[in-house]
Amino acid sequence: MPIGGGGGCSGGGGDGQPWAVRRWVAVLIQRASMWWSLSSSFPPVSVLFLLHFLLLILFAHIAETRNSSIPAFFVFGDSTVDSGNNNYIKTISKSNFPPYGKDFPNHIPTGRFTNGRLVTDFLASDVGIKDYIPPYLDPTLSLDDLETGGLLKLGARKIAFVGLPPIGCVPAVITLNSDNALINRGCIERLSSVARDYNRLLQSKLTAMQTHGANIIYVDIYTSVEEMIKKPQQFGFEEVNCGCCGSGIIEASILCNPYSLVCSDDSKYVFWDSVHPTEAAYYKVFKDLRSIVDKFSKD
C-alpha cells in the first residue's frame, strides 16, 4: 500500500445522520481502500502520487449550522487530508507518533501526516463547523460528530473536486527520479506535466457532469503549490525540495519518527516529510482557496 493510501474519509459537523448513512459510507471507504491496496495495474509510486493531494469535499446543503450555509464537510482523499483514519486500519503507514503533530494543539500526534493542521481543518474552522475535522473511523465519535448529507443521491448539492499539485516537485518524487538526487533536486517536469494534463481532463469531465440542482466545481491547487516552489521567499519559505523531518528526501510515516532529526523552524519548509506539506504550506493553500469556498457556499 502507498504511504498513507488508507486516508479514507473524514467527517465533522452539524446534525446527526441516520446510522445507515454512516454504515453505507464506511462500506464505500472500505471498498475504495481495498481497490487502492490491491490494484496491480499501476506502479506503487504512480498510485501514490496520482492520489497525492487529491481530495473530494462534499458540501451538504441541508440545514443552517451556526453562521454558515455549509452545515458540514465530507472529505474523501489520501494522507494529505487524513485526520487520523490510518489509526484505525491495518497498515504500517501511520503518523500517530512524534514528531508528527508537534505544532498541533497540545502537541498531539493525531494521525495527520504533518506537523499541525490540514487544509481541511482550516476550511472547517473558517466556515464555523469545527475547529478540526475528526477521523470518520474513530469509534468514539457520536452521531453529532458525524457528517450530515452525502453523495448526490443522499442530498449533497455542492461538490468540489480538487486537482493535483505539481507532483514532480514532491521531495520523494525528486529523489526517485533525479539523475543525482543529492545534488540535482529540481522538479521533475515530465511528472508535473502529467498532473497538468490530468487537471485539464478532470475539468472537462466535471463540466460534463453538471446536473440540475447540483453545483460541481473544480478547485485548482496546482498554482498555489507551484507558487510556493518557484517563489518561496515571497511566502516566507526557504526550503522547497526537501522536508523538515530527517534528511527530508526519503522519510515519511515510520521513517519520520521520534528518533529523527527535525529542522529548527518548520515554518520555513514547504514539506514536513518527503511527501506531505507543513502546516504553513497547508495554510497558504487554504488562504488561496478561501474566496472560492466563500463564493461556493453562497451560490
Automatic annotation (TrEMBL):
Pfam families: Lipase_GDSL. The chain crosses the membrane at residues 42-63. It comes from the Eukaryota. The keyword Membrane applies. InterPro entries: GDSL, GDSL_lipolytic_enzyme, SGNH_hydro_sf, SGNH_plant_lipase-like. Belongs to the 'GDSL' lipolytic enzyme family. This is GDSL esterase/lipase. It comes from Rehmannia glutinosa (Chinese foxglove). The lineage of its organism: Eukaryota, Viridiplantae, Streptophyta, Embryophyta, Tracheophyta.
